[in-house]
Amino acid sequence: MALKILGIESSCDETAAAIVDSGGTILSSSVASQLAAHVKYGGVVPEIASREHGRAIVPVVRAAMSDAGLTWPDLSAIAVTVGPGLIGSLLVGATYAKALSYALKLPLIAVNHVEGHIHAVILQSPVQFPALALVVSGGHTHLFSVSEHFELKLLGKTRDDAAGEAFDKVGKLLGFGYPGGPLIDRLAPYGNPRAVRFPIAKLKGSALDFSFSGLKTAVLRWFEAQDMQEEVEERRKLVNPTLEDWLAATPQRTLDALASFQHTVVTELLSRARPSAEQIGARSMIVSGGVACNSGLRRAATELGLPIPIYFPSPALATDNAVMIAAAAIPKLQRGEVAGLDTPVYAQLPL
Ligand code: KG4
Ligand code: ZN
User: Fold this and answer.
1) What is the rounded average pLDDT of the residues 133-141?
2) pLDDT tens column, 61-112
3) What is the C-alpha to C-alpha distance for residues 257 and 1, in angstroms, rounded to an integer?
4) Ligand 1 touching residue 34 (CB < 6 A)
5) Which residue lies with its CA nearest to atom 23 of ligand 1?
6) If you write DSSP's letter for every residue of 76-124 in order, what string do you get?
7) Residue 321 C-alpha to ligand 1 middle, in angstroms?
8) Neighbours of 346 (CB within 10 A)
9) d(C-alpha 19, C-alpha 52), whole Å
């Protein structure tokens, strides 16, 4: 009989619980977003995030259980994100998971959030190994080689900002609120991606590392040269804007800059795909994490013409969720990799 794993995720600003069985079937997925609590600060406030997780964790887990039509005795294991992430946020999920594990006498499985993003795709697609995995989110820009036993080897990563962070900082700077990524994605098709040539840093050392802070500074310089403070202030005043409202408040030069910025990020992200796929003899490529929702990235990835299939998660499994945590726990449970109740949480958790 298939084992049923309850996954819990609370590393950043989503409180999530999901149940996945050992055959890979998703039985439920519940996600409570804290966006409304953070939006007026233009980013995630760690203290607020911890409190919001504390409020949401019990209802979210209950929702996952009832949506799956399960009661506690039906569960086989509790999986939880132990890092990387915000310590106060991680502690809420991990402490709750430990309490459940102790009370129900179930194995506790500790999962790395980044590993979770990769397993979201492995769960949904017929991934061939070794696979090249590009994990791009608000906190991560990592390239891994993934073996058929799901062992990960880091090939490259960002030296400074994550790609999603760059989207969010540019969005905030230009008055598009938080998070900037999804909105820039929707506005970019209205601009010319070749109108502004934003430079990207050339790195010494690992050819497979990334850097996005120079690009962010280049956008800042462009902004300062345009004398557009008034335009930005007008956008900041918009209340619950529709796409049409955003477009009406955004002159063509700004749309061109957004399109050019997105084009630069996407080009940079994909520039490492071919050499790294060749280096590891990849038989497929995985792109995951919140930025994997980006339509420009999806289009450009398929247009790359790599001789291997490229798999993206469905949008619901690209951004933070707990299905990916339960999915990453399946092989660990099968290998008997059980964590103790003294397992810590980690702000940084290298793989
Ligand atoms: O994976 P995720 O939910 O959380 C982290 O682990 O960080 O990713 C959130 C990030 C944010 O930076 C957000 O702006 C970005 O993913 N994002 C996007 C899109 N959707 C989400 N960036 C670009 N285009 C999108 N469509
Ligand atoms: Zn994430």
Assistant:
1) 95
2) 999 999 999 999 999 999 999 999 999 999 999 999 999 999 999 999 999 9
3) 55
4) no
5) 181
6) -EEEEEEESS-HHHHHHHHHHHHHHHHHHT--EEEEEHHHHHHHHHHHH
7) 12
8) 17
9) 22
